[in-house]
What we know:
- The chain has two domains: about 5-335, Methylamine Dehydrogenase, Chain H (7 Propeller); about 355-465, Superoxide dismutase, copper/zinc binding domain (Immunoglobulin-like, Sandwich), CATH 2.60.40.
- Helices cover about 0% and strands about 50% of the residues.
- It has one helix and 38 strands.
- Strand 10 and strand 11 (about 125-130) form a beta hairpin.
Amino acid sequence: MKYTLSGLLLTSALATHAQAVSHRDRVYTADQISNTVSVIDPADNKLLGQIILGKPQPDVLTPLYKGQVMVHGMGAAPDHKTLAVVSIGSNNVTFIDPATNAIKGSVYVGRAPHEPTFRPDGKEVWVTVRGEDYLSVIDVATMRETRRVQVANGPGMVAFSPDNKLAFVCSSFSPELAVVDVATYKIIKRIPVVSPFSPNIFASKDGKQAWFTHKDVGKVSVLDVKELRIVGVLDTGPITNHVTTLETGLGKVAYVTVGGENVVKVYSREPGFKQLATIPVGALPHGIWASGDASRVYLGLENADSVVAINTATNRVIGKGKIGQAPMALVYVPNAVLAGVPAATALGRQLVDQPAVVRQLKPTQPGAAAGSLVTRSEGLVDLVSFSLAHLQPDTDYDVYLSRATQAPYSRDYPLLTVHTDAKGGAMSQTLGPVQAVQNVDLATASKPYQRVVVAPKAAGSTPVLLSE
């Protein structure tokens, strides 16, 4: 048996290992900038199309009467018959039928929801409302909110124990993990953790552990579910995003996306949590999920607008394909569609083929300062996303284009001003004609912009970051 995945020929041995992956399975990504759900056939890593939930970001700067904004979180029902998709900008949960790609219903919740998680019995989906201090509990059958579970400020995500008795809630703004009794919807324990920013949590199928990430400090914590205590804190790397647990030929393992290093790291789940592999994957890996038979792991590249497939027997990338813009959450759904159903039913395409240009910003002086700039074409304008780290805390910095190729780097085309947080980091976006800036001054029309520069806002200040 042979087949091709994004042009890479897989050997018969690998094909045998991955037989359970079929054309009835689907990989879904939540694409935050294109406001789409990309639908991929994992048997050949082919993008079938997109479920379009809203217009691209530049088109939502008007009154929004229809459609969703900032498609971000995602969860699949245990019976594989419902997909829940969270849009953080429009405070919405959209329910989708994977078999037909049709929208089944829509529920509006509180400010800036983040991730939806189905209970193991499939009766409810619990949505973390990150801009508030509660979980929104939605009845799947009626698609209505039935109650709210009070937790610490900024809940990030929920993971359930496989026996449906406990729920574990990490927080994006509070340094604690809440343990909730599912039957009573009451918190029974609050566990202190190493940082206040945990966006993602995943429980192992054997019910023994829950792994959750700390994006702000580059760590992963491991919870012993039976003892309800933290048994390990791993230094994984900057911008640690998502984690998934599975069982492979290497044993019980966890795969972690580390966005700041553009890699996936593999760890043993046995005591000691030894790192087993580091897999280069591309620009800013984010959401991650395993196939039904654990033969592959799929992940989305936030800054490359792509999905990557990894063979878990070899821990090597075996395929990569373009999808919507800025994929965040990703889920793999086995047997998502019925045999004989046309693959592209009710699917469209929105901003799939526009390239994402990634520029790394390097420090001008020795030190830890770092940054990146991602530019995407949105039609008439470009959307530029910045990520800056290890600058002076609580300080204004100008980001601009310069025609100069050496210091002092004139401030020729301002992009935006950002204010760093207490740790010297900043993330922001701006819209404008950036990739093809038109020179309106005829005297300088022959001098193109050469550098992206980051410098303190104060006049005459020395640049701290510079593109090549």
